[in-house]
Amino acid sequence: MSMNYNSLARDYAKHRRTHPEVLRHLIEDGRLTFASRILDVGCGTGNYAVAIEQAVGCECWGIEPSQEMMATAKARAASARFKEGRAERLDFADAFFDLVLSVDVIHHVEDRPAHYREAMRVLRPGGLLCTVTDSEDIIRHREPLSTYFPETIDVELGRYPKIQDLKQMMLESGFTAIREETVEFRHALTDIQRYRDKAFSSLHLISAEAFARGMQRLEADLRDKGSVPWWSRYLMLWGTKR
Ligand SMILES: C[S@@+](CC[C@H](N)C(=O)[O-])C[C@H]1O[C@@H](n2cnc3c(N)ncnc32)[C@H](O)[C@@H]1O
User: Fold this and answer.
1) Is residue 194 in a domain?
2) Centre of ligand 1 from the C-alpha of residue 199, in Å
């Protein structure tokens, strides 16, 4: 089921920021310097392109199919550059980028092999690809999403590609040195407005009853305990263009 990211844009910008460990690994493992040029595919409201631009000062580009998401990105940007586009067709010259990344996007991409072929084309030799996504294990153990809204698990397993399949597509597109790492961030959550606002797309894909049930438990635990555990993990899948 596809999401309408235009209508989600406002809530997304309000609640979803960069994951600190994802950002750190993108910069360090991506070997980014002032001289690097990066592409953030499906950049949404510009979270990663803007954060990398601010932290490293390199040339950051973002592409995004939702006009509303991109309007927010453009309004936030210091000098990051954004244009409308999709992962399957990257409107850039060959060998233009040092790093092509996407965060939480690959499950939306219909033609994933086309995306990896395009990423291979626009990377310079030695350039890096990083697909940041969720593995089955991560989906099953998300806190508080999977604990309070267990109905999201099957929804998510149905729409997220398997890591093994992504690796195979990367290999078939010519990427080498494919490796994965899981990063995590724990936090005591005291503000659950992002759940009330359904800032996570899977909350739009479960029944109204399941959502209400989960919210009721979440509100009660927050009231009783003062906070609820938040465990956010991502799998970062890296490949190199030889
Ligand atoms: C969960 S959001 C992630 C946004 C951003 N990467 C972030 O982490 O803040 C998913 C984004 O993927 C975009 N998207 C959906 N289909 C896409 C496609 N085929 N190519 C590129 N982006 C796509 C959506 O419009 C949305 O902005």
Assistant:
1) no
2) 13
